[in-house]
Amino acid sequence: MRFSRFLTAAALCMVIAGPLNAGVLSSAITINGTRDNLNDRSFSVLIDVDNDGKYSIDDVIYGYLRVDTVNNDVDTTTAGTPIAGTGTASTPGGELGLIYSAQITAIADGGIPDGGMFSDTLGDTFSLSATAAGSHFSLLNILDPTLASEIGSELSNAAETVFVAVSSTTSPVIGGTGLNSVSDFTGADFDLELAAGIAAGSDDFFHVAQSDMFDNFGGTEAAGFTIFDKPGLGSSIFVPVGVDSDFTPTSQDISFHDLVLFGGEVSFESFTTVTENGTTYSAVALTNHSNFGINAVPEPTSLAAWGVLLGLGGFTRRRRKTESAA
Description:
Layout: H1 2-17, H2 24-28, E1 36-47, E2 60-72, E3 77-78, E4 81-82, E5 88-90, E6 95-108, E7 125-130, H3 139-142, H4 145-152, E8 161-168, E9 191-197, E10 205-210, E11 219-229, E12 237-238, E13 241-244, E14 254-257, E15 259-276, E16 279-294, E17 296-297, H5 300-325
Antiparallel strand pairs: 1-2, 1-16, 2-5, 2-6, 3-4, 6-7, 6-8, 7-10, 8-9, 9-11, 10-11, 11-15, 12-17, 13-14, 15-16
Helix pairs in contact: 1-5
């Protein structure tokens, strides 16, 4: 009896314990095969890299976001389309932020004249991918040097990583009167939880559809990412989550990914400038509100081991009953 109880307890510990490097993210999501939605607010800046006065290929958008709430175990899809979650809303037990840098790689002309301050972009859709490593605004270059060194050693695919999720249980609040820039995320306070981006040869994407009539890069955004690294989630794996990539209500183009961004809204804040390595760039300050969908499950080997242990526990109980009957 004691042995069977030990086996059952051991099996439960293997699943309940979850990731060995449990952090804010792993405590915020359920890791049970049911989707969780992370709701955020973010701050970013669009850099006119070539200073040509218009949005063009190779311009960069970078910034950070704070995960404010998490909806656990939400409704997942209707015909593959994400819908509003009805799961339990909670607040992460610490600061959970995503730092990102992405570069415009293609622009699909929306064909709507707008007479804005920049190029004719109303209705255009911008495709983005990871900012080139040689750029002053690449992901590792915009980070605090100590954090960049720590994270850089953990990234398995730095060239395609668009963002990293970092967490802390000791840092000030992100945004507001607390941490207000990417450089505020220090290696002393934050640890890497997850890294994701646009995998080569996949159907991953990051799109922003321009809908601001004054050409101020306001609009909607959606994305589907591959998770490259997950030190904060241990051996968990991911059930693909669906997202609509074409922004067209009458014609949904659904694809499935490890992590999706949906319902994103990009809002113009102000015109500004950014100086980097002695060069001053025209820029636009932006705020974003969006949602991330993720569905993590325990690694199959853990589940298999759990089943074996529970099976042994059941065999032991049956054996003891047989011996008692004899």
